[in-house]
Amino acid sequence: MAPKVVVLGAGFGGLELSTILSDRFGDELDLTLIDRSPHFVFGFSKLDVMFGRETPDAVRLEYRHIVKPGVRFRQEAITAIDPAARKVTTDAGTYEADVLVIALGADYDLEATPGLVEGGNEFYSVGGAERLRDVLPTFTQGHAIVGVTSTPFKCPPAPSEAALLLHDYLTTRGVRDACEISLVMPFGLPVPPSPDASRALLSAFAERGITFVSNRLVRSLDPARRVAILDDQSELPFDLFLGVPKHRVPAVVAASGMTVDGWIPVNPKNLQTRFPGVYAIGDVNSVGTPKAGVFAEGAARVAADSVIAELQGGEQPPAYTGEGSCYVEFGANRVGRVDVNFLSGPSPTGSFLDASTALVSEKEHFGSSRRRRWFGL
Q: Taken in order 230, 231, 233, 234, is the CA torsion positive or negative?
């Protein structure tokens, strides 16, 4: 009988791992891929939706299009995970696995930031991006704040991208001179592992009149007074607030007993948890890389190779290096690229390719190549 592999979550990590195992084992594979959503959306597409560059329907990739040997997709809500028994319960049934992979990502806790629901907006979920698509046209003057409320958070360059694209959006509408934009970030630099990328972003902010508020978090909003209260108790008045909400593991993961300090610890070499035959890849773990799709994808490759070695008998793959490339929207139809390595040395290192129109095409290829690989589209 084919070993049973159960993959929880069909994001970058779950899709890439399932694809690798399907390519390796074909019809001899018995893999169940479970996600509560009927579709996948690239993280960067949320900005496209938010600023009206794409419709919500255009950026959704339906999981029903997945046709891979040995892989069955199930749209179900996971209600319990027993990592010791490698047993998963959903709203439709129970699954037992020889190998269990947790790739459920991070959820958002809007209530953790007082006033955010009542007085602000978040742009990290598809729903939040859709709502902002309708809110932004009503903003014609005043102070817009893009603010991070907690760490860690997905895709660290995204708040910088949002600020730059907001500048372009307001300029196109002819109201930029009546508006102020501030970016509140918990880092001293926009992209700490890459000084060159940070210098480029700081220069872009200066050129566009965007205020960079470094080493600060937004702790709460006062909707009545329309002020954002930072972690040093200083206040910033706002007319429009675009927030990055607090991230946390899904509740079903927290209830499973796998987490330490809020996230699942793993062996950094192969992404295995302390439970035999159980892996955790992507945003749900605490391996030390940013919470971004490209790192989940890289971790999936190493975890998949480790699963193959475990099932077939053989040497474990080389250790996960935490390498990845992130595309950064600079606006004005230009994209930069940050190449970083988080785990190979004593500290993260990064390099930067200057923003250009050529990298716009490269970013488009990044998306289209994965659509073909994962969905055959």
A: negative
pLDDT tens per residue across span 253-284: 999 999 999 999 999 999 999 999 999 999 99
Alpha-carbon distance values, 312 to 198, 305, 306 (Å): 45, 10, 10
In this model, does residue 1 exceed pLDDT 80? no
Task: Look at residues 132, 114, 152 and name the one whose alpha carbon lies nearest to residue 228.
Answer: 114
CA distance to 87, 266, 345, per residue, from 260 (Å): 20, 10, 24
Any domain includes 317: no
Which domain, by its residues, includes 98? Answer: 4-106+249-312
CA distance 257 to 273: 12
pLDDT reading at 2 higher than 90? no
Confidence class of residue 159 from pLDDT cuts 50, 70 and 90?
very high
Neighbours of 257 (CB within 10 A): 12
> Which string of b and e fits 312-342 if b means at least 16 CB within 10 Å?
eeeeebeebbbbbbbbbbbbeebbbbbbbbb
- Tokens describing residue 122: 């978040």
Locus of tokens 């779950």: 14
Asked if the structure places residue 327 within a domain, the reply is no
